[in-house]
């Protein structure tokens, strides 16, 4: 039962996901405002969704093909299309049922280049959606993140603590300076605006707040608060619950990379309507990767950082 | 014009926990029609183009020692604010419960129609008065009501009620209302107009279509009451939309557009804890009817002493 009569061989991608909630969670994580257009890129490796704002912030969601129970990719050139993120997430949400995993099939393109979704749970009840896609922007999306030196400048912090710290920094607002110091190993977030607020995260072996810390020289960059906030504003409850850790890396020129891991749970019981491939059975980590790239604010004295 | 009755324990439970919260969500005020045999809550039957809802009870379900008299064939109708009614019943329950389950019959909850002079007024106003005698306290609550409807309007209300009782030729049974409610709650902000198609094959199709998205749900092989037909096997592998279009062409199906808001509102009737629901489209696509069915507790037999149904006005898709 499908919403549109499309021959299977005509589709560039037909994939099945056991639990739509994981996809809702991962896409919601990059939903920092109401109206956002995303670019979706399909490939033999999986699905990547890219968002951009004001040439200063980029987010990417990686849904590797191993997350899907079935992943049939048939395109010769990687298809790319634009879609309203809000609409996509809202449509996916209609498939979710509290306390139960819902399996869906995603198909692209439909007869009119739509993105087609349909539920797979029961042959007698079917939910479907056809989302209109748009031609994506031709703007270069590449933020060229490169390491700042031979030793990476990075730290991993519990996701809930990171979100809390960034939420607290709303009060001073405007710009937030992130400082990394090798001795004593620590990270500080400092906001200077209506008032000053500094949050220090000290790295030591006993603390499980900072899980990892790599820094061989002091480094300091300023970022616009609204972009920094976008990186944690909509973290799904599953990330907070698992509280694994979010990794922050400072690259060349002060470009900040924030990485989150979103669990994409599978159905508690195998779904008889979903074809379970062998590769899927062997896949242990069921994680969607979320990356944010935040450009720093221009410093008056750039020399002190590079 | 007199009305006096005692609410039964079951009546209190039905009203306080199930029906009044649901009816309150359908509209702040409703008409209450009291006849010799029945007690009926009616939303939007006389006025407006909103969703019509009719909840009716045999008088024994809610009351005992039920006394009514009026010059209008012993019928009384008036408008009442449901949240006030709910508050009065709720606080009366808390007073009654001071006695525990085995309260003596003299401490029951009495309801009567009275006229009282409100403070700073010269004209007496009508009230529905709740009298409760507790162990330590006796509480009288006056719920203001509209003036009882004049004879002509009561007749109009009864005629509208008769009309609203008409059953659609085909009704399909939805066994799990929670599933539809959950779905509609999530889809409701994606569009304003919902297309509802019902076929004699037992298919129910809900669809929201906008310029950017088309979102639908199809429930198949539902129990059909009334006119039914065998689903053609060649339709099996078609899309839900095409299948319903073909059913309509064969005159085996009907489709109407209703407001998503109205549809979601009608699902608030789920608070009354019905055992199942039936959807049907009135002849000529005049309205969408939802009938909620209640079983006699512990059985699968319809409890004919309680009735609840809604009629949703249809929209013209051309106007949006």
UniProtKB/TrEMBL annotation, chain A:
SUPFAM superfamilies (UniProt xref): DNA clamp
Alphabetical UniProt keywords: DNA damage, DNA repair, Nucleus
Subcellular location: Nucleus
CDD domains assigned to the protein according to its UniProt record, in alphabetical order: PCNA
TM stretches of this protein: none
Gene Ontology biological process terms in this record: DNA damage checkpoint signaling; DNA repair
Keyword Acetylation included in the entry's annotation: no
Any one annotated GO CC term: checkpoint clamp complex
Record has DNA repair as a keyword: yes
Cited InterPro entries: DNA_clamp_sf, Rad1_Rec1_Rad17
Domain of life from the UniProt record: Eukaryota
Classification via PANTHER family: CELL CYCLE CHECKPOINT PROTEIN RAD1
Family as reported in the entry's similarity comment: Belongs to the rad1 family.
Protein name per Swiss-Prot or TrEMBL: Cell cycle checkpoint protein RAD1
UniProtKB/TrEMBL annotation, chain B:
GO cellular component: checkpoint clamp complex; nucleolus; site of double-strand break
One GO BP: telomere maintenance
Transmembrane segments: none
A Pfam family matched in the record: Hus1
Keyword entries, A-Z: Nucleus
Major subcellular site: nucleus
Gene3D superfamilies: 3.70.10.10
Protein localization: Nucleus
Matching PANTHER family: CHECKPOINT PROTEIN (PTHR12900:SF0), MITOTIC AND DNA DAMAGE CHECKPOINT PROTEIN HUS1 (PTHR12900)
Protein family: Belongs to the HUS1 family.
Protein's name according to its UniProt entry: Checkpoint protein
Organism: Linum trigynum
Upper taxonomic lineage: Eukaryota, Viridiplantae, Streptophyta, Embryophyta, Tracheophyta
């Amino acid at each position: 039962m499908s919403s549109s009569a499309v021959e299977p061989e005509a589709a560039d991608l037909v994939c099945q996901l056991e639990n739509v909630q994981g996809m809702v969670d991962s896409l919601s994580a990059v939903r920092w405002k109401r109206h956002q257009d995303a670019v979706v890129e399909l490939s033999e490796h999986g699905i990547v969704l890219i968002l951009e704002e004001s040439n200063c912030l980029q987010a990417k969601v990686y849904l590797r093909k191993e997350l899907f129970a079935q992943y049939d990719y048939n395109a010769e050139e990687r298809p790319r299309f634009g879609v309203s993120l809000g609409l996509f997430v809202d449509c996916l949400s209609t498939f979710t049922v509290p306390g139960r995993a819902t399996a869906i099939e995603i198909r692209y393109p439909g007869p009119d280049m739509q993105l087609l979704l349909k539920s797979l749970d029961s042959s007698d009840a079917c939910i479907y959606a056809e989302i209109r896609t748009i031609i994506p922007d031709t703007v270069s999306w590449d933020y060229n993140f490169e390491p700042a030196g031979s030793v990476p400048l990075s730290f991993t912090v519990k996701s809930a603590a990171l979100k809390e710290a960034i939420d607290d920094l709303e009060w001073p607002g405007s710009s937030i300076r992130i400082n990394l110091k090798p001795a004593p190993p620590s990270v500080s977030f400092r906001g200077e605006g209506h008032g000053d607020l500094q949050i220090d995260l000290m790295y030591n072996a006993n603390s499980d707040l900072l899980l990892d810390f790599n820094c061989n020289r002091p480094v300091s960059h300023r970022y616009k608060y609204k972009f920094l906030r976008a990186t944690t504003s909509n973290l799904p409850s599953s990330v907070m619950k698992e509280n694994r850790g979010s990794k922050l890396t400072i690259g060349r020129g002060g470009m900040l990379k924030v990485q989150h891991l979103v669990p994409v749970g599978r159905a508690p019981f195998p779904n008889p309507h979903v074809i379970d491939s062998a590769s899927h059975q062997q896949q242990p980590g069921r994680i969607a990767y979320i990356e944010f790239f935040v450009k720093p604010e221009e410093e008056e004295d750039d020399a002190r950082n590079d | 014009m007199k009305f006096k009755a005692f609410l039964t324990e079951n009546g209190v439970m039905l009203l306080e926990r199930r029906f009044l919260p649901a009816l309150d969500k359908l509209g702040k005020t409703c008409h209450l029609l009291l006849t010799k045999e029945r007690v009926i809550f009616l939303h939007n039957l006389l006025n407006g183009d909103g969703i019509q809802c009719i909840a009716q009870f045999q008088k024994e379900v809610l009351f005992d020692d039920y006394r009514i008299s009026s010059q209008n064939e012993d019928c009384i109708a008036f408008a009442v604010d449901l949240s006030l009614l709910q508050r009065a019943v709720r606080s009366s329950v808390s007073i009654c419960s001071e006695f525990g389950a085995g309260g003596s019959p003299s401490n029951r909850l009495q309801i009567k129609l009275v006229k009282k002079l409100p403070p700073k007024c010269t004209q007496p106003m009508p009230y529905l008065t709740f009298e409760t005698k507790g162990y330590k306290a006796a509480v009288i609550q006056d719920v203001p009501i509209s003036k009882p409807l004049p004879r002509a309007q009561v007749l109009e209300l009864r005629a509208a009620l008769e009309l609203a009782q008409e059953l659609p030729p085909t009704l399909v049974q939805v066994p799990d209302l929670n599933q539809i409610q959950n779905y509609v709650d999530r889809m409701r902000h994606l569009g304003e107009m919902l297309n509802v198609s019902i076929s004699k094959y037992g298919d129910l199709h809900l669809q929201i279509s906008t310029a950017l998205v088309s979102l639908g749900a199809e429930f198949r092989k539902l129990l059909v009451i009334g006119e039914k037909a065998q689903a053609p096997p060649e339709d099996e592998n078609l899309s839900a939309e095409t299948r319903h279009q073909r059913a309509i062409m064969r005159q085996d199906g009907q489709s109407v557009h209703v407001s998503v808001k109205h549809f979601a509102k009608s699902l608030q009737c789920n608070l009354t804890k019905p055992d199942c629901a039936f959807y049907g489209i009135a002849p000529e696509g005049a309205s969408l009817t939802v009938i909620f069915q209640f079983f006699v507790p512990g059985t699968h037999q319809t409890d004919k002493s309680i009735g609840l149904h809604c009629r949703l006005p249809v929209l013209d898709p051309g106007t949006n």
